């Protein structure tokens, strides 16, 4: 399912280009294809080789930019960012990229992920006299770069990256080149493509298709890659570790037309659905998926189970930020908002409803109710991922542990609470085999921490949960 | 496929409610669910029993209305409209509902469809001294009502409806009641539902699910139904004729969760896909549909053919009116806009691409190209409706005859032009049996004019093609 | 003083141009200089010789138009309008110009003034089958033109004008020429200028200075002037009567840089101030005027009285529609809004405060209070016009008679109520001699009805007070 | 004249309040009355005793704030800022107040003025690892405060202020109190008022009148005043020096209803006009002033010279940021923009035109031309300040020396160039005696550097001219 229905807040999207006369336009289209990774803010910084120019704002990519603004951002290199969370206009200050000016040159950063030792680093930096204008981890990285003080900015970036821990896919722009880096565990995706003579980088490969670029390679864990007029310069700032890419990218976060480490996301999801049909079969008349992110798994389940796949749930396409929520009274009278069940499809039927994950369980409960009201005889909920019982500290906002329904309730309790006839999750093994990463290889694992509690990095006592940070909580 | 990709302009959506304290809010949610029928303008008129109040504007429903505006539209009866076409802000004047004030009471009208004798009526009315501020047929109906001059407005409406010819689903609001009427051929859909003690009317039944109402009945051809505090009052203003509802409502225009004359639209489309698989089978690896309107047919084709259904084409969800179109140069470099092919799904595969219809053929050609560029080995185009060879005069903008590719080129020429490996259309009989209307019955036919040229009404020499009217052309 | 402080609503402004390649731009600048005549809505219709194109909207001229819109309004003839009153966006429908389309050609009208027999005409037209979409008098004139039915539109316009009574300065645009007309009493100002080979018309001559045009002549009462590529064609549609131009144009409504019937408005106001000093002298230390409209009179009073003129009251320039009004609590604590008294100027001084008129008296009371709080020892109020004791039916909204403080209270009561040390009005004779119209001439009178009750036209029992019409009241 | 006509950019305005439940609203009205000091950006930070909350943006005060935003800024202390310069939305980052967060508490700063050693301080701070996100001097002060590292923030502020040189009126907000400080030369005005139990601070006293507060005292040069729930705590962070307040505050920058060091600005300007009439008399028919800032001087000149004061020049009130500039072609045809001459007043007359200052001379030339075109027989320009021949480094943007017309041309050359019949400036002695500061006193001087070149502080070789900084130039 889509994040906004779950109340989930997700991570961000990063895009960059070096060596193209239309750098700002290319970045606009790239960010646009990453819009699902963050709808709350967007920004682009360009370099025209002499200076950096920035524009950013709250809202969707096509709300923040217009043709005049894009044209004013002339230059041949650019990095851009779409951002996930916020409350209020004043949160503008947290929009990325962040740009820093100094008498020796400018620096812009865009970052996807979450650091686990940001609090400690920030305390230390403040002690040394640094001041912070934002609440983002990105500013911590910038301070560390500045304080490294090497004559070559690349050395300063490498030095800074040895100090931060957690998840980061980072793009850095200076006047004369662009740098990208990935954390040593490779928790977030980041890929490089080629567009004529120019290079592009993107959180997801779908952006390459949109801008007409060809996929070149993924950025590997612990790499710092400099892109300038000569091409790519690859360095390692950290010893190679086993990659533990976030499983949730496959389960629901990435776009189905992206490949993550060369595995197509739609295909992976469809396999998860098939695997789920093998593990948890049920006699039923129709299979339906919660749009948009569970469609692929539902198709797979239906195909494997030999039950017709149908559009049993329809999403209203025009619900934007300005949509007026129905009052409590109207909601009780049955006014729906974003999703409705198709009576003509589910009435009198035994329905298998596929969802990609359950966090708090409120959305699933609401959808089961929608299906029942539309006349479904039976509703069997099948979840194409294992129960989420641990919080994520790497940028996926799956809430704090107390709010994760699977961490406090049994499967049967959850099933009863959502009013379903049956409920099954995919097993962790099913998840791994469904995605099909060649994980016998040394460097090709995946992060399963939210299911298993085995975090690939240290989690410090002071590690901020990203959601707390946003709210300014304790 | 969706209209905006085809450059098609479609008809409109009408919604109304009588007897609910939150009439404006209910209408807002109703119009919202009809948004696919018109994205260019929206309006609501309410009655508070003493006077009518109106608000309308250019844009989506949730751009035109905000909470303050909805609250200011207090009243217990309302009609609303979403509108399809436009050029420029000044076209505000054509937004509906239209409201007319007089010393004896006010009158508001909202109308879906297109009259075939509007030009002649207008000439006659102008000759008699009427002046026109809009270019819409609705104003013609209003003038006719006013000139009828009966003491009871219902008689004036009936009198006016005997003079207009063509397609219309009409909602009329006065201070004390609401009226709805359907043309004698029933070319457009219009249904009545019940929401507690209140009645609602809607172009499509999906709105009933959204606002929590229950379906009561369709408005039948030639009926004028008055809804007041006593309930429904049904009259016939025209002798009953065979209903010829527009086939295109099933093929691509209505929402899949609507029922049109008690046939679910998704189910009908899936059947069209199955029928198409029976008529035009092909050996292939994957079936994919052009989002959003061809998904159901693609599922049906895949199920019948036993070929896996996949998400081979992805639509970018965030393309709005303000989206910046790529320059010609960028488009030639491969920058995509709204739709992209999923390389991970189609690369090296034989693809069956299902589309619901072909008008000018430009979109299909572009999609075939997208699939080829993404590595499809073969592309077989299957269209879930027959060739469109005649223009529509009833509100579906399928362009003038010269622009209908199927009216000037052979099937093989079209196939070659779009670069497909094969192309097949559904037959007219396949269309009828796929939709499955019980058309042996006297009153249950369907309009097939755009395929067969057999128009259910007279077409006058002066009949304006609606598209011309919009452009103000000759 | 400015209308917005008094809660007065005023009449409108009309501008037109014929024969200039930049007709829409010229009209934009013209309307801009007439903005003080109406801040609530603006519109322009252009003719490109083949058709009319319109754009209008709620708000200030530079809110309604942008460069793209102006450019899209290509054409060599144009009329425009700024509008005074309204509540809510839905009042868009009343924005002018109004445009009417017919199969034989289009017609646009812009109108300043108020008809006194509109209600009767409307009833008659409705009886004959006309329908009304707006509440403006302009639509009545349009219906009358249409129903006149002469082959030559000029004859129809003349015919229509013989039926309407009241105040109107009217501009009419058709594809091939422009017409302007003034009511037989000449209640409203309307002038013609020349800009190269083009002609311009404007409610006030200040617009000629702004667009670089030269004054040619005023439109005389009862004239219909057609302006086409040949130049001016002057006809009389009504026998000549004595002109009775609205005195309030001189007193406070027109811009000081306009000439009304060749008398400069600033000079007239300064003379009113001098006359007032002669009629009502007082010993004082400083003279100050209520900005902006009473400044000229204050300068005149000071000069005649030999008392220094000072800026004792300052208006805050940036108070727009979106200004947040202080809460009652804050207002009681002394938070001011638009106007503040200058302590450094008035403290310990005997102040003569000049205002141009008193309607309800609330503003004057507030200003006296401001001056006292700023330390004024004495406050002597001098009004540069006679007491207003009768409502205006010609477009100046001086409220209904009950609300006119001078119609219900004695001068001493008013003085006490506003807390002034003394209060004097200008006499009617003083007003006439101050303005200095050569009224011995037959055709050069002025309307004094709001002071004297002698209306220059019949006032019908059903005459709508314009303010009622706006509110939709009885 | 007003800055926007001259292309001058000026300094800023600062406002603050401590101890009022409606702190954000009070600050809104205060900033509103300071709007003339900066129209490009506005911001407010409030303290609710637990944390700071901020909102700021580009535009006028009433564009940046709406009721919801003000209400969300709940708290009892607030500081606000209006800002003068900018180009483009991306300059948002330079809007003030700046807010800095740290684990030990937050800090917000708003600053009016310009530092002369900012470049050197910045270089040193960057060398120590500080990074800069803005180009404003305020961020330099913040870094210095942070690096001071005293346990008591007041000590850190004092320490920081000993390092900065130049002009500053500074407001600092932390959770529990507010601080204000003025540079040791007192180049900028800053006053304290009382509003019930609350204290307010403002760049100008006009804000006190607007919010209903009483003037208490000016902040003296070199003072740091802490305002908390106990009241005012006054400290000196610098030995007392002779005050050298900017003369331009009197000449044209401050509002006429403000008092600067207890001298009313209107009265001072009127005296400058009188002094000018004594120094440079001329035989003429009318005196007129360039609105708005030269009106007071014109009144004074007229009164002293015994020549009638008239409104010979009118400013169009509705020219906002969105006003569409006339094309070159239209300008050549005579289309005016913001200012027009009143033909009815100046035609055939010998006109004395009073302006407050001349920077580049382009505006004065344009106005002389306007007057001539409107028929003035003679135009005598009288400037109510001495020739500006030196740039300002303290925040008044009088351009670089090369662009100051009086630094490169003789008085006669300037007179010829602007097409005037005569030109006179006020003498420096005339300026001083006109303003009337009691400058025999030790601590009551004024800065005359732009006239005399005698700067009250050191000017470092690296001193940025503020205008350069804005443009990012070298």
UniProtKB/TrEMBL annotation, chains A, B, C, D:
The keyword Transport does not apply. It comes from the Bacteria. Transmembrane segments: none annotated. GO terms for molecular function: 4 iron, 4 sulfur cluster binding; amidophosphoribosyltransferase activity; magnesium ion binding. Keywords: 4Fe-4S, Glutamine amidotransferase, Glycosyltransferase, Iron, Iron-sulfur, Magnesium, Metal-binding, Purine biosynthesis, Transferase. One of its GO terms (biological process) is purine nucleobase biosynthetic process. PROSITE patterns: GATASE_TYPE_2. Binds 1 Mg(2+) ion per subunit. Binds 1 [4Fe-4S] cluster per subunit. Pathway: Purine metabolism; IMP biosynthesis via de novo pathway; N(1)-(5-phospho-D-ribosyl)glycinamide from 5-phospho-alpha-D-ribose 1-diphosphate: step 1/2. Pfam families: GATase_6, Pribosyltran. InterPro entries: GATase_2_dom, Ntn_hydrolases_N, PRTase-like, PRTase_dom, PurF, PurF_N. PANTHER family: AMIDOPHOSPHORIBOSYLTRANSFERASE. In the C-terminal section; belongs to the purine/pyrimidine phosphoribosyltransferase family. Catalyzes the formation of phosphoribosylamine from phosphoribosylpyrophosphate (PRPP) and glutamine. HAMAP family: PurF. This is Amidophosphoribosyltransferase. It comes from Salipaludibacillus keqinensis. The lineage of its organism: Bacteria, Bacillati, Bacillota, Bacilli, Bacillales. The gene is purF.
């Amino acid at each position: 399912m889509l994040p906004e229905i779950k109340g989930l807040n997700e991570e961000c999207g990063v895009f960059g280009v070096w060596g193209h006369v239309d750098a700002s336009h290319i970045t606009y289209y790239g960010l646009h294809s990453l819009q699902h990774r963050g709808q709350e803010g967007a920004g682009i910084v360009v370099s025209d080789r002499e200076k950096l120019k920035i524009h950013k704002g709250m809202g969707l990519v096509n709300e923040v930019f217009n043709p005049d603004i894009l044209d004013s951002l002339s230059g041949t290199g650019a990095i851009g960012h779409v951002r996930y969370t916020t409350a209020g206009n004043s949160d503008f200050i947290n929009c990325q990229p962040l740009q820093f000016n100094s008498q020796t040159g400018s620096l812009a950063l865009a970052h996807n992920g979450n650091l686990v030792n940001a609090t400690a680093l920030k305390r230390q930096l403040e002690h040394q006299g640094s001041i912070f204008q934002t609440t983002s981890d990105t500013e911590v990285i910038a301070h560390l770069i500045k304080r490294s003080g090497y004559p070559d900015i690349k050395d300063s970036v490498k030095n800074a990256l040895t100090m931060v821990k957690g998840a980061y896919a980072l793009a850095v722009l200076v006047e004369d080149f662009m740098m990208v880096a990935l954390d040593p565990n490779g928790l977030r995706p980041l890929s490089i493509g080629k567009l004529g003579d120019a290079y592009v980088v993107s959180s997801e490969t779908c952006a390459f298709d949109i801008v007409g670029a060809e996929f070149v390679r993924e950025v590997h864990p612990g790499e710092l890659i400099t892109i300038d007029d000569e091409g790519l310069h690859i360095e390692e700032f950290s010893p190679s570790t086993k990659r533990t890419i976030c499983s949730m990218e496959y389960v629901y976060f990435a776009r189905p037309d992206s490949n993550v480490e060369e595995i197509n996301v739609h295909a992976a999801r469809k396999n998860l659905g098939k695997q789920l049909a093998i593990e948890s079969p049920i006699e039923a008349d129709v299979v339906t998926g919660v749009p948009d992110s569970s469609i692929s798994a539902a198709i797979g389940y239906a195909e494997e189970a030999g039950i017709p796949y149908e559009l049993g749930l329809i999403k209203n396409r025009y619900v934007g930020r300005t949509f007026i929520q129905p009052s409590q009274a109207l909601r009780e009278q049955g006014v729906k908002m974003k999703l409705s069940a198709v009576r003509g499809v589910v009435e009198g039927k035994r329905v298998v409803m596929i969802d990609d994950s359950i966090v708090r369980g409120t959305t699933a409960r609401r959808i089961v109710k929608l299906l029942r009201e539309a006349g479904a005889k039976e509703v069997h909920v099948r979840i194409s991922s294992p129960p989420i019982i641990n919080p994520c500290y790497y940028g996926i906002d799956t809430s704090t542990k107390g709010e994760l329904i699977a961490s406090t309730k049994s499967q049967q309790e959850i099933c009863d609470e959502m009013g379903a006839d049956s409920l099954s999750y995919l097993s962790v093994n099913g998840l791994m085999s469904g995605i099909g990463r060649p994980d016998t290889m040394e460097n090709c694992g995946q992060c399963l921490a939210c299911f298993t509690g085995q975090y690939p990095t240290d989690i410090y006592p002071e590690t901020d949960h990203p959601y707390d940070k946003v709210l300014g909580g304790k």
